[in-house]
Design brief:
This protein has ten helices and eight strands. The chain is globular, with a radius of gyration of 18 Å. The protein has about 325 residues and is of the alpha/beta class. Helix 9 links the parallel strand 7 and strand 8. Strands 1-2-4-3-5-6-7-8 form an eight-stranded mixed sheet, with helices on both faces. The chain has a single domain, classed as Alpha/Beta hydrolase fold, catalytic domain (Rossmann fold).
């Protein structure tokens, strides 16, 4: 059952706090005039993010992080970035965002440190292959391989085989797809919980994606179209369940926390996926953040602090 029913007041402009509105205006300003990644090339855009060019701050790398490498289903090497307490009580499989094109496992270390410190879990972030160099199914395959490896090796590696999973944006999509693949391909239904943060769950585009338009608030309609075309260059039926988890059989899945802001092009994805998760008979919780833009958890702001506390409380609860 949801513990947070939808209320119209959440979506009213008056619900947006002043500091959130100021952050959104700043984000629009930071993104205005930026070159498009599909014009400058994915690799140039990735380097720009690492240098702090654009709305996202340059990454801060944790001295606590270590990297191991496993072998993927294609024989490829998959780096796993690990930030863990001395005696983990469980493992959080983290999948980063970036539209399946940008981002990296080492680009949100402070957030992953916070999760490790506040949940007591080892955080394992997957360096999955990125499009357009490696389109679908390479990225989902790598996330599935990481999950399957943890099922077999988490106890020996971390002292606990209690597993959770989650991610942001494209990472939320890949986390949901991984839960489904592990059930359908490996017979594994042991995830204790899924922390799905403003994920994309319908890659044929929900109404909110189509209607968002060209306001440069992190994620526009054209951004989604370009990311999908890079990730799915030859696929026209984008409602295949392995591509769009919204259309999958969702029965028998783990508890999930769905989180999204009201100023996010992916708002409908979370609302629709949460409803289908409930209708499939799964435990689920929903958090709506008034005024939250796409990626709001990645910037220093009060709303991000609230979302972090909520996600960490969920992870503690499902592993308690």
């Amino acid at each position: 059952m949801t513990d947070h029913p939808l209320r119209p007041a959440m979506f009213h402009p008056n619900a947006i706090a002043e500091d959130t509105a100021k952050l959104n205006d700043a984000l629009v300003g930071l993104m205005t005039g930026l070159p498009e990644w599909w014009n400058v090339g994915a690799e140039n855009a990735r380097q720009g993010r690492r240098q702090g060019r654009g709305p996202f701050p340059a990454p801060v790398f944790s001295p606590r992080a270590r990297t191991i490498t496993i072998t993927g289903r294609d024989g490829n090497e998959i780096p796993l970035r690990i930030i863990a307490p001395d005696q983990p009580r469980g493992v959080y499989l983290h999948i980063h965002g970036g539209g399946w094109v940008l981002g990296g496992a080492d680009m949100q270390d402070p957030m992953l440190e916070h999760i490790a410190d506040n949940t007591g879990m080892a955080v394992v972030s997957v360096e999955y292959r990125l499009a357009p160099e490696y389109p679908y199914p390479a990225g989902p395959d790598d996330c599935e391989s990481a999950a399957a490896w943890l099922v077999k090796n988490a106890k020996a590696e971390f002292g606990s085989d209690l597993l959770t999973v989650g991610g942001e944006s494209a990472g939320g999509h890949l986390a949901a797809a991984t839960v489904l693949r592990m059930r359908d391909r490996h017979g594994y239904t042991g995830f204790r919980g899924a922390n799905l943060v403003y994920g994309a769950f319908d890659l044929s585009m929900t109404p909110s994606q189509v209607a968002f338009g060209n306001r440069r608030l992190v994620l526009r309609t054209i951004d989604m179209q370009q990311f999908y075309n890079a990730f799915l260059p030859t696929i026209t039926d984008r409602r295949v369940p392995d591509i769009s988890p919204l259309y999958a059989d969702l029965k028998g899945l783990c508890p999930a926390l769905f989180s999204v802001g009201t100023q996010d092009a992916l708002l409908d994805d979370t609302l629709f996926m949460h409803a289908r998760w409930v209708a499939a008979g799964n435990e689920t919780e929903l958090e709506i953040y008034p005024g939250g833009a796409h990626g709001f958890t990645l910037f220093p702001n009060r709303l991000a602090d609230e979302a972090a506390a909520r996600s960490e409380a969920f992870l503690r609860k499902v592993t308690g």
